[in-house]
Automatic annotation (TrEMBL):
Sequence similarity: Belongs to the LysR transcriptional regulatory family.
Keywords: DNA-binding, Plasmid, Transcription, Transcription regulation
Signal peptide: none
Source organism: Roseibium algicola
Keyword Transcription part of the UniProt annotation: yes
Name of this chain's protein: LysR family transcriptional regulator
Domain (HTH lysR-type) ranges: 9-61
Transmembrane region(s): none
Length: 309
């Protein structure tokens, strides 16, 4: 049944119940003229008049009374079925499409995405990672994950944790052989893993200390555009790599890699989940946003009160 036919049936019942085109129009959110035209169209399609109309009153014709008696139970069944479907929105289900930088996706994959799927197994998540910045609305995504400074101003943003930082790392063996750089310009004498951005440009390593910013165009034996490959190269002793700290945190903790120039890599913008405002979000959408808020609050608390952990 099309929405148009359903609207026509609801209109007939509203007029029959109210006994007035004007009162029915107010109930349905239509103008009296629009409602009158709607009923006139239905009567022409049926080939009979459903209502006797005068300037003072409205009443059902015999055909209209028969029509209402037969349609009312069926329409109630349809409305009950629609209400039952809407009630299922109390249980998150369906698909959520999310766009994110690969590094951002790796950081939130276990604590947010996988944790969400464990909690809401009826939801399917379609996660797309790419380096370019996309218009999530135009490209059909429900949500995006980016650093706070890259979230469009017309979007609603949910911080996912404390500020992040970059990390320069190398193997202990490499540093023992080549020495540790004492300042960013010293990197020009080292082998470095070069990084290519999604737009094809080579990334110049960014440093900052005491309000002084430096950009270093490093040199090295290999150029890569994927962080996991760069990590493999660094772990193999090829040279020094430049990463988001979260990508090499476990390697640092295990002693496989050592940080250098840490005082030149201050915190950067935190990650944010972002989305456009919407009137009727699905239960799955609401649940994911709420879980993201929980994650952000927990991460902020850990940063403020590390002794509690």
């Amino acid at each position: 049944m099309s929405r148009q036919i359903l609207g026509e049936l609801e209109a007939v019942l509203a007029i029959a119940n109210r006994g007035s085109f004007r009162a029915a129009a107010l109930e349905l959110g239509l103008s009296t003229t629009a409602l009158s035209n709607l009923i006139g169209k239905l009567e022409r399609q049926l080939g009979v008049r459903l209502f006797n109309r005068t300037t003072r009153s409205v009443s059902l014709t015999d055909a209209g009374r028969t029509f209402v008696e037969q349609v009312s139970p069926a329409l109630r069944d349809i409305q009950d079925a629609m209400a039952a479907v809407r009630s299922q929105q109390d249980t998150p289900s369906g698909t959520l499409r999310i766009n994110a930088f690969a590094t951002a996706a790796r950081e939130v994959f276990a604590p947010l995405v996988l944790a969400f799927l464990q909690r809401y197994p009826q939801v399917h998540i379609d996660l797309v990672t790419e380096g370019r910045i996309v218009d999530i609305v135009a490209e059909g995504f429900d949500l995006g994950i980016r650093t706070a400074d890259l979230v469009p101003s017309d979007m609603i943003a949910v911080p996912l944790g404390a500020p992040r930082s970059f990390a320069l790392v190398a193997t202990p063996a490499y540093l023992e052989e080549h020495g540790s750089p004492g300042a960013p310009p010293d990197l020009l004498a080292h082998q470095c893993i070069r990084v290519r951005l999604p737009n094809g440009a080579l990334y110049r390593w960014h440093f900052e200390k005491d309000g002084n910013a430096l950009l270093i165009d490093v040199e090295g034996p290999i150029t890569l555009d994927e962080a996991s490959l760069a990590r493999m190269a660094v772990l193999d002793g090829i040279g020094i790599g430049f990463f988001m700290e979260a990508n090499v945190r476990d390697d640092i903790a295990a002693g496989r890699l050592e940080r250098v120039l840490q005082d030149w890599t201050p915190p950067t913008s935190p990650l944010c989940l972002y989305y456009p405002g919407r009137k009727n979000p699905s239960a799955a959408f609401r649940a994911f946003v709420n879980m993201a808020r929980e994650l952000g609050k927990a991460a902020t608390r850990r940063d403020l009160f590390p002794a509690e952990q």
